[in-house]
Each structure stands twice: as structure tokens, then as C-alpha cells.
Amino acid sequence: MARSLQAIRWGVTRLAGSETGNSIGFVPLGDFTTSLNETRAALGYPVGGILFWGPGNLPLVPAGIGPNHCGMLVAEVDEAVTAEQLTLRIERLRTRMPALNGVPLQWDLGRKNHFLNVYRSSAGRRIAVMHCSLPEARGDGALGMGHDLRQSHLLRKMATTLDTPVGPFGFFCDDSASAVLQQAEEYALLARRKREIICSALFEGCLILSNENHMQLLDHNAMQFGSYASSTPMRHLPLMVGPGRRAYLVDTENPVESFGRTLFLTPHGTGARSSSPDTVEYDTETERHFLTDGTGRRHFRQLNEIFDDHQDDSTVLAPEYERFYRVRETLTPQIETKFL
User: Fold this and answer.
1) Which has the closest alpha carbon to 147: 122, 166, 172?
2) Which of 79, 126, 144, 165 is deepest in the core (most CB within 10 A)?
3) pLDDT of 181-234, one tens digit each?
4) What's the pTM value of the predicted model, to 2 decimals?
């Protein structure tokens, strides 16, 4: 994060003063790790924490941080659906996805770390967990300006670009920042509604237990990067470990004081870890990541060539986190649609 934090601190100091520039930081959670998202990692943003750059009401938002409104839905389902039955339902749904606010929904479960799994809980319940985002709103369209700076012409027009010591870096200022936050709040609601629609279409008699986004703007000056954050307690949050592994439903326990906010925080999973002991660096000229060892510099086209799934639940369930959240149910996988 050396590049991203330096650019944000430099820009915020110039745009809002040194006092605000000194209130920038990242609060990592138990699954703090490197993002497998190429663009996000190149910009210097990890997964597993909250990024802060002001008190919360300052109309200033870094451009390109990518609140794609990714999140997970947890539902209790009545029927004992088989893997074959669920696969057929998914295939039918994908051929005629419903529309939301006039925009056809896209099926993005199974993409990257997105999934739809069914578990048996330690309480004897059948639990479905769904992980997806809102790719329908990446670019400008019927929903308004897109949320992806690379695909939204309107966003790029609104951004103010500064030449920071580590290169050009964009910011949304004043009315533009407020417009971005307002649109992000609307997209957050749409992302939740999308998951509800898909869940209801696939399972009869489903009871939604939680449906939270973990990749979104928290306020004008905070961003959730693959973590859950709220000013009020949260229940039945999914804590995922990896394919074929047990998962957990957790409740928040005690709030955390961070950068002038009182927040309940939980991680969303264990993420990824490096398969190499060497330091992973980024080459701005070739726009590729690389490792340096005895043979020289080795570039990689995809981050997943360097990083593996971190399938170890000891980090997110470590005793030091027990005061922040507690495990209410353990989930044993029964159907993992990503691998059917």
C-alpha cells in the first residue's frame, strides 16, 4: 500500500489541508491479504480492512478505488435440493435472468472468488451462501454513471487528477464526491436486491438471514475492502475459508474505535497468500507484477500465478479476534456450484 497511501495522503493534504492528510490509514482485519484483482492490486489496495482518509463528512473521494458492491447473502432454505437439481435451476435462470430497474441482471456467481454454496450448519439448518457483485453497473447506462472508473466516461469527467510524487492520481471533490457517494448508496441497495432475486428464484421457502456488502463506500471518507463494517451490530455474517472447507456464521460482539468512528467489524474470509517467499512488486512501465530472485526479475501476467487460496481458518478464528465477533454456527459444505 506504499504507493496508494502516499498518493492519497499527498492529494488529501493538498485538497483539504495537512490536518486531514494526517488522518489517513488502513485498519486490517484477520484476513488482510493481497487482492487477486489485477487493477485493484496495481493501485495498491488489498482486501481485508477499511481505508480511511478523513472524518467522514469531507466531500472528497479517491477515484478508482472501485466500490463494486460485492457482498454475500446468507439464507436458510427448507428444501433438500440436490447438486443436479440446483445445477438445472441455475442453467434455466442464466438463460432468462430477470431485470432490475429496467436493467437485465448478469450472472457473476462463479467468477473469480464468487460462488453459490449450500451447507449443513451445526444447528441442523440448511444454509445457502451466495457471493456476487454488480457488474451490470460498471459502465454508464440506464442506472446512471458507472462505478468502474475504467468503464465510466462520466466518472472520468468528474475526477480531478493530481500529479502526486508517485504518479497521477484522481479525486472526486465537492459536488462530484457527493454524487459518487449517493450513486454508490443506490448501487449498494441494488446489489442486495439482486442477491435476493437470485436466491428466491433458486430456492423455495428461503429465509434471508443476512445480506451485506463488503466492498463499498462506508461514507465520504471510508471504503470497505472485503470486510463488513457497520455502526450497528450485525448477525449471521458469513466467514468463508475456502473450497471444500468449513465456513462460519458469526455475530459482531464489540465495536471498534477507528478514525473517529465507532464500528462493528468482521472479515469475510481468508483471502490469498503468496506461494513465494519473495516480495511481490509492481512495475509501472510494463503494468505487471514481478518477483526478484537469484535469476533476476520475473514478471507475471496474472496475480493468481503468484498467489494461492489461503485455506487456513486459524487466522480469522484466532483468540485475539474473539472480542470483535463470535462464531454462532459452523457450516459444512454440501454443494459447491463453482466446482460442478
Assistant:
1) 172
2) 126
3) 999 999 999 999 999 999 999 998 899 999 999 999 999 999 999 899 999 999
4) 0.91
